[in-house]
Amino acid sequence: xxxxxxxxxxxxxxxxxxxxxxxxxxxxxxxxxxxxxxxxxxxxxxxxxxxxxxxxxxxxxxxxxxxxxxxxxxxxxxxxxxxxxxxxxxxxxxxxxxxxxxxxxxxxxxxxxxxxxxxxxxxxxxxxxxxxxxxxxxxxxxxxxxxxxxxxxxxxxxxxxxxxxxxxxxxxxxxxxxxxxxxxxxxxxxxxxxxxxxxxxxxxxxxxxxxxxxxxxxxxxxxxxxxxxxxxxxxxxxxxxxxxxxxxxxxxxxxxxxxxxxxxxxxxxxxxxxxxxxxxxxxxxxxxxxxxxxxxxxxxxxxxxxxxxxxxxxxxxxxxxxxxxxxxxxxxxxxxxxxxxxxxxxxxxxxxxxxxxxxxxxxxxxxxxxxxxxxxx
Length: 377
Fold this sequence. Notes:
The protein is mostly helical. It has one domain. Helices cover 67% and strands 2% of the residues. It has 15 helices and 3 strands. Helix 1 runs antiparallel to helix 2, helix 1 (27-46) packs antiparallel against helix 11 and helix 4 (97-121) packs antiparallel against helix 7.
């Protein structure tokens, strides 16, 4: 006999945030930060050579090496976005939106202002030394309407995601796993569609989703399990995608007659798959055991993770100083290592390592000043 009545409450899907989350210790977050910081420096060390592509010399070592490094490391910046999402989208946090935004903006606005001023003035360094008046109008135009320096686009972007975070907390508090999977699918499918087919129907109106997908994906992967079957698929594709990116980028560049980044933008499905695969692997790796086996390495990684924000700000300046030989006329770039000509596959990583150490040293010195430690990093 059916004892139900019209007033019986229908069972609703269990919200994703109400389910028992997978126990991912936060230790992996620091390793991801440190690894991503190193990868960003390596990309920026060789990356400029992509834009020097010459169709008459399409297999030049400079372009081929930069293409391979970029194809292998394009996950680096999305990692920073995903870690932010993993740590900040907390559905049941009792923190008010105002308190959250105040804390996060204080974390990024002051360092952005400091380093923004440094990079605004840096192109005028010779004029300043020679006493030539600085074009303040042009400088203000750059500040408000352009990227101050090629890597500083990240800060306004992440600030936009911070503004959305209180809304995402409300959403993830009540959404089911299927809801979030659907939302992620919409974001990444339409972002990819906007990139590859920008003028097709409603696809052209979805570009505003931007980096939101990576931010939410970081929360999703941090909090909930992925089945072994899906992991095998993701890992297999993740290993193949860098090969597809490297060969595809070379091929499309040859066909276009100039560097073609269509496969290497963050909206590209190939970059998304590689990023997801490596993030999953690092998330599930036993970092506790590793830290006990390699305590010295662990301490260095933890320190690098702590100063990774500062290294991100400082490293382009260091790369430019090394490239131009401002230190004792010793030139260091992917073409040579302190005036010693080397293949870019060798010189590039060596320059990146030196850049990481010098950037870390700059940040370590700055941290000795309470004022700079509080406001510049």
